[in-house]
Amino acid sequence: MSRTFDALVSEAEAVSVDGWDFSWLEGRATEQRPSWGYQRTMSVYLARASAALDIQTGGGEVLAGAPKLPPTMVATESWPPNVAKATRLLHPLGAAVVADSDEPPLPFADGAFDLVTSRHPATVWWEEIARVLQGGGTYLSQHVGHSSVFELVEYFLGPQPEEVRRARHPDDERRDAEAAGLEVVDLRFERLRIEFFDIGAVIYFLRKVIWMVPGFTVDQYRDRLRELHDMIESEGPFVAHSTRFLIEARKPV
């Protein structure tokens, strides 16, 4: 027997959304993974680095999964609950966590790192990345691409203008990286299927990924949520598509 709308809403509103761990969605939503395997790829680069910086580390979960960290490993994060979580997770591994506003400048010297990484950065300050990289150093990141999960965004917000749909386009990121003096040596883009199996999964996702529907609250969107709940109950999972791209950029010697 399916659970009621009110029960699903209450559960999803009560659960913590700290950190960047989506395990609560197991059995409630699925998302295709990019073919390149970001954590696996990042781990290879970390293993051969001497000093690395992970920008916007979230709760540190992705970085903590690397089997070997370089002798100097630093992570930045801006949201206080995530700073605390990342500190607990990463300090035992020998990584320092720095509370940072995610606004320039990065609190590090010029040429401080031979590797900079980031998974799903909310903002990308290319000139700062180029500044803190050593000559010959590498930026490796998986970015959220343009129009990601826009089926869900536009369900709540209506059709979005073209400039909003194009934001985070990989071609624009390449241009901005090159304008900062970096050489883009790899750029791979994929569109990936997402399925939400109940309205609780939708609520949890929108509470956690706060930029999808800015200011989202259940009270504000209760009518649309109830309509979506009924649609999932009658027609099956709500399907959306995420976009991801892997970008590797190098600072010339």
UniProtKB/TrEMBL annotation:
<feature type="domain" description="Methyltransferase type 11">
    <location>
        <begin position="53"/>
        <end position="139"/>
    </location>
</feature>
<dbReference type="Pfam" id="PF08241">
    <property type="entry name" value="Methyltransf_11"/>
</dbReference>
<protein>
    <submittedName>
        <fullName>Methyltransferase type 11</fullName>
    </submittedName>
</protein>
<dbReference type="GO" id="GO:0032259">
    <property type="term" value="P:methylation"/>
</dbReference>
<keyword id="KW-0808">Transferase</keyword>
<dbReference type="InterPro" id="IPR013216">
    <property type="entry name" value="Methyltransf_11"/>
</dbReference>
<keyword id="KW-0489">Methyltransferase</keyword>
<dbReference type="InterPro" id="IPR029063">
    <property type="entry name" value="SAM-dependent_MTases_sf"/>
</dbReference>
<dbReference type="InterPro" id="IPR052939">
    <property type="entry name" value="23S_rRNA_MeTrnsfrase_RlmA"/>
</dbReference>
<dbReference type="GO" id="GO:0008757">
    <property type="term" value="F:S-adenosylmethionine-dependent methyltransferase activity"/>
</dbReference>
